[in-house]
Amino acid sequence: MASLKDYYDILGLRRGATDEEIEDAYRKLARAYHVDSYSGNRAAEIRFREIAEAYAVLSDKEKRAKYDQVGINFSEGQVGCDFDWDEDEEICNFEGFEEFFKESFEKEEALGSHPQKGKEIHCSLTIGFEEAVRGTVAQIQMEEEIPCPECLGEGLDPQGPLEICRECGGAGHIQVGLFPEVFTQRCRRCQGRGRIRQNLCLSCKGAKRRTRRKHISLTIPPGVGDRCRIYVTGAGARSWTCGSSGDLVVTLEVQKHPYFRKRGEDIYLEVPLTAWEAALGTKVRIPTLDGYFWATIPPGTQNGQEMRLKGKGGPALHGGTKGNQILIFKVVVPHNLDKQSLNLLRRIKQRSTCHPRGQCGWDRDRKKDPRGILRCKGKDEFLTLSPEGKHEL
Fold first, then answer.
1. Nearest Cα residue to 132 out of 311, 294, 261, 281
2. I need a labelling partner for 351 at 20 to 30 A (CA). Which of 170, 239, 340, 382 fits?
3. What digits encode the pLDDT tens for the residues 279-319?
4. What is the pLDDT of residues 318-362, one digit of tens each?
5. Within 10 Å of residue 279's Cβ, how many Cβ atoms?
6. Which of 20, 5, 248 lies closest to 118 in space, CA to CA?
7. Are residues 149 and 95 in the same domain?
8. Do 210 and 150 share a domain, yes or no?
9. What is the CATH number of the domain that holds 126?
10. What is the CATH number of the domain that holds 11?
11. Is the CB of residue 179 less than 8 Å from the CB of residue 44?
């Protein structure tokens, strides 16, 4: 198909335009009429093909020289260029313009019609043991990004000099299509203003955003545990694509209590007992979350034995009944007893028929020995424990 078109007029150029002017004109028009931007618009598609055809001729020195000689009536044989278009083939070779289109469409995608939710903000908060059990209200200080208040998020100095937008020539909009299917769209570069600020904003240095501190009041429910996470909807980073704000994720770190330990809703407390208290039974003043009370310890309480105090634990995280307080008894053997106390213990030993190792498998075949030494299959070894807990062979 021979072309009968004025290529200079299509690109909006004068006859003596330089190579740089031809390339700049093509860049501006190619961005405005690219087929990916107006998929399904036949008028814009035809217009883009004309632009590509004109650029293919005028950007080639040899073809341009022949075109300048014969004008719009030149034939295919004179120029040696065929611009028949195949609907299934690529419309134009964009070699050298990959970065140009990539930057254009990435920006369009970032400002696209699909709003995206803002990012989550993660932070940690340390609370006391009783605050975790009973619940509390804590203040969190965090940083958030906001549009620069000086330049209103544009990144340019609002008081600086202006220049005419090179994309729309100062019109603020770009015409798309051919008559009668002609419409205009707002210029992406100047956002319809026709002028662009030249200098970067002095406040944000062109970043368009500033960081500010804000305080959030966080309600911590009763019954939370260590490493528990609390999500605050909409308190995270704001969306820059007209979407909803992200969430604030607070990870709790519960401080250790001097004597209480928490497992779920249950509260554990270790209770030391002397040997005679464990053997005879006694009453011990026990601390709980609700204050002190007296607990009756039954006779014969063993080391590691547990006692459950129903309803004396912490509340469940999602409501309901309270947990229990678990008492773990620890029998403490006294040190440095006087001679009279040792004699009393020897008398108890002689009168006692208790043999705690009698039910152990490793002690069933033990041969009786007056010195109480464990006889193994091999050589007998004598093991002595020092007062510090160290042993010597």
1. 261
2. 382
3. 999 999 999 988 999 999 999 999 999 999 999 999 888 77
4. 777 889 999 999 999 888 889 998 899 889 888 888 877 777 766
5. 14
6. 248
7. no
8. yes
9. 2.60.260.20
10. 1.10.287.110
11. no
